[in-house]
Amino acid sequence: MALADFQIHDLAFRALDAFQIEIPSWGFANTGTRFGKFAQAAAAVTLEEKFSDAAEVNRLTGVTPTLALHVLWDLPNGLGDVPEVRALARRCGIRSGSVNPNLFQDQEYKFGSLSNPAPAIREKALAHVFDSIEIAAALGSRDISLWLADGSNYPGTQCMRKRIAWLEDALRAAHGRLKPDQRLLIEYKPFEPAFYHTDIADWGMASHLARHAGPQACVLVDTGHHYLSQNIEQIVAWLLHTRLLGGFHFNDRRYADDDLTLGSIDPYQIFRIFHEIHAAAADGLELHVAYMIDQSHNLKGKMEAMVQTVVAAQELYLKAALVDRVCLAQLQQNCDLVAAEELFRGAFWRDVRPLARAWREARGLPADPLPALRAGGYVERIARQRGCRGQTVSSYA
Ligand code: PSV
Ligand code: MN
Q1: Which residues fall within 8 angstroms of residue 321, CB to CB, at 6 or more apart?
Q2: Does residue 255 register a pLDDT over 60?
Q3: 134 C-alpha to center of ligand 1: Å?
Q4: Half-sphere exposure of 374 (CA within 13 A, CB side)
Q5: CB of 378 closer than 6 angstroms to any ligand 1 atom
Q6: What's the whole-number mean pLDDT along residues 99-125?
Q7: Bridge-partner residues for 146, per DSSP?
Q8: Which has the closest alpha carbon to 236: 183, 289, 191?
Q9: pTM for this one?
Q10: What are the distances in angstroms from CA 104 to CA 29, 82, 192, 221, 344?
Q11: 397 in ligand 1 pocket by Cβ < 6 Å?
Q12: Sheet holding 95-100: strands in order across?
């Protein structure tokens, strides 16, 4: 028997109350590709501007209370910047979110950071991770999101096994510095900037390193960090099963790590990922999944792209929450393929926008955040105040 309307309403409100997503400070800054960067007048340069933009997104959507920080870009003086970040967070009503060490920009990291053959460079990289853990602790941030650009460009130029061992040692040492409530999220990526081998190339390698590091380490899935046609929801199912799913960096792509807005190319994939998570929760798994956005809005307006992303994430999460799981389990058990698939796809095709609007109104939020952003004049105001300063950050995201 299909779910009754009142059950759907109830399920939807519970799902939306539970859903929050973190926005990245770098999503508001000017970015581009290696071929060029197009500066936007409204782009944020200072951390104060990034916090202000994040606060506006949260005011409109109500589900983005935290801002992910990249240490080198946002706290160039490390711990010394913590008081300012704390003050900004207080003033803007936005908490500091995950802390991202930066082990890919310094010249020394040309041949790697934690898996560089030179012990002194490995030590420098590890010291930066230790500092990042301290920064996170001082800011009250639970998660340290670690992505390494380490790898090599040509066969035979590096010993992959030695590099595994160096990574194991470093991540275990980093784990030893975590406070009891902190987590180390290990992000994988198959290629770029390294084009022959990447030291943490997939979820299996990340899982091994997390297990080796210790119980507070887990895996971070960036949806853009997979080969084309890879079954990401199956990876998610495995990480759920092995209790290693720490969180997501959401974005969409057509070709590689394109960093397009979530759901712009393949919303069904995000729905399928959320379905695995809802199903695991329904089966009683205790989950601590951090949902984060990691996008680079090179052409779209930063604020619009961010609000659009948050709304898309909410809607896809909601669609997946409304899968009739009891019925689906029965159909799966009976191998009733077409009926199971139709039920599943039916949930994806459901128009959940009226439910999302009703929830926002009930929570005192604008029913439609994107038109509300356009009507509010925030973007025009910051564009006037900030002007095109042409400053950019790394094009990797
Ligand atoms: C690397 O492509 C990545 O996904 C990592 O998460 C970085 O921290 C982020 O992008 C920075 O742009
Ligand atoms: Mn990422």
Answers
A1: 11, 12, 14, 15, 274, 278
A2: yes
A3: 21
A4: 7
A5: no
A6: 98
A7: 186
A8: 289
A9: 0.97
A10: 18, 22, 11, 19, 41
A11: yes
A12: 23-24, 66-70, 95-100, 143-146, 183-187, 217-222, 245-250, 290-293
Nearest one of 57, 129, 106 to 308, comparing CA atoms: 57
Domains and CATH numbers, the chain: 12-386 (3.20.20.150)
Length of the chain: 397
Which ligand is located closest to the Cα atom of residue 74? Answer: 1
Identity of the amino acid at 153: N
**CA gap 47, 43 in Å, rounded:** 11
pLDDT tier for residue 110 given thresholds of 50, 70 and 90: very high
Closest residue by CA, ligand 1 atom 8: 147
pLDDT one-digit tens code per residue, 280-319 = 999 999 999 999 999 999 999 999 999 999 999 999 999 9
What separation, in Å, do the N-terminal and C-terminal C-alpha atoms of the chain show? Answer: 44
User: Cα(214)–Cα(216) distance, rounded to whole angstroms?
Assistant: 6
Tokens 């190319």 correspond to what residue? Answer: 265
